[in-house]
Amino acid sequence: MATSVRICAKQFSKKYSTLSSAMIFRQLFDTVSSTYTYLLGDQSTRECILIDPVLEHVKRDFQLTKDLNLNLVYVVNTHMHADHITGSGLLKTISGCRSIISKSSGALADIFVDEGDMISFGNFKLKVLNTPGHTNGCCSFYIAEEGIAFTGDALLIRGCGRTDFQEGNPETLYHSVHNKIFSLPESTLLYPAHDYTGRMVTSVDEEKRLNPRLTKSLQEFIRIMNNLNLSYPKQIDKALPANKVCGLYDLPEDLKDGL
Q1: What is the mean pLDDT of residues 190-218?
Q2: Angle between helix 88-95 and 58-67 (nearest 10)
């Protein structure tokens, strides 16, 4: 029995990526918008970044960087969100870090990135992949050495971002996923910006085989996306104006206090 277990573990490690001991990784969650925020840090240099922070959890996220003795250097958004206000601006204010977003997003930031750019923290580098379709400014971020990618709303677990508002285009999204994300090694672990059923991670291999939308032909995918009949996003009217200015827009006083 022991031999069988060892073989299974060896086979699993070949098929799916695991993070190195040099990387600090935390996956955080917002229950209101079902948003994932990711903290990535370097064990040796103690530099870290946050991907897709949520305004209401700035205190939690910043406290975690202090608990882990990390220096927050960047806050990064995969796109200009419509379902929550980013915590980027407030985190900049309290930590001195810099904000990053795609130059095609239409939002303010300290640094604008484009296809092929690298975001460095410590000894790690996030490669920028432009993956528009949900919005014009959607990016995915890939760390080849770790075999992981952060796909924002472009690719969700067994799903994808909606395309019926904010420059959405189903044909563009289809090509973004197939040409950029599905071209990564199949063992690559994919971390989305949201999940609404409690799933935390998927892989290129899984989504290429099992995604109920993106395994279809382009024309069938367009038909599916044009007939989702989704409700109006609950927080879009306050989220978009705030996110255009990095989240620094009419901040509630309780969020400013105690930071």
Answers
A1: 98
A2: 40
